[in-house]
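Give me the fold.
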Amino acid sequence: MSNFDQFHLDFYQSNYTIDDQEEGYKSYGSNENLCGSRKSQTGDQPPAGAFAPSEMLLSSQSYTGQILQPTYSPDPHLGYADGFDEEPPLLEELGINFEHIWQKTLTVLNPMKPADGSIMNETDLTGPMVFCLALGATLLLAGKVHFGYVYGISAIGCLAMHALLNLMSVPGVSHGCVASVLGYCLLPMVILSSSAVVFSLQGTLGTLLALFIIGWCSFSASKIFTSALAMEGQQLLIAYPCALLYGLFALLTVF
């Protein structure tokens, strides 16, 4: 036992005692409490000059029993409902005006009626498309499938007339205006193709009727071009190429 006691004393030779350990623990605990209290004070009270959110200030106050009611803000999407009433109709946005279409049709049907240049200068392709379809449909009723020829001749004729009118007129003209005028003036040719459904045009009566329709179409087109482009005194010069163009449609209708 003496040897073990001697080994124990040699191994644990130190000035540290249990009393010193308890005093150190107490001092550490007091320092930790002091630091914690300082942190809580700094956390609850922000420093001067720092930004404190309103939610933090409200949470620090005592609850008064009031219910938070949100303020009314008008819905911005409700304004779109009133905006729809002020928008123009869809047909007007697409450029389809039935009153102008009717006026142009009456101008073509009555060659002696003066043309309104402001209306005729509009790019309106609704009537020309309808009249081209009507011409192809009446030719189909007569046993002639010529839809490709109708659209092909129309496209080539519009390009040729556009180039010619730009050379002859000072202000110039657009492709849409040329296509619109030539398409509206195709209406008398629809009447000729409708006649081909009832009786044959390969005779003297058919030839005379075809010549009359060609003159009708070319005179109406030249009158409208003269009024829209301010080309007084040049109506006969414009009527000649128009007569050549409508003569092609007459050949499709008669033969």
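The radius of gyration is 48 Å.
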